[in-house]
Amino acid sequence: MTQDEIIEMARQTGMVVVNDEFSLLPFLEAFAKLVAAKEREVHEHNMGVLMDALWKACGDDEEVVNATIESQGTLIKARGEQA
What we know:
This protein is mainly alpha-helical. It has one domain (3-82). 77% of the residues lie in helices and 0% in strands. It contains three helices and no strands. The radius of gyration is 19 Å and the shape is elongated.
């Protein structure tokens, strides 16, 4: 995430960002990084749960699991492009 993106998101929330010695920008950047790290952590956990469920549901049929993963990846990518 770039500094400009963080500033724009802050503005979208109604926060006024001033680039001087009293700026909150370093804190906003640190906060944004913490939020992104937590989202990655949650995503990785959820993917682990999903993979376990897939293996159980597909009876260890690797071909079915791979096809399911590919289709889910396509859906996730499409959702990201719509955001």
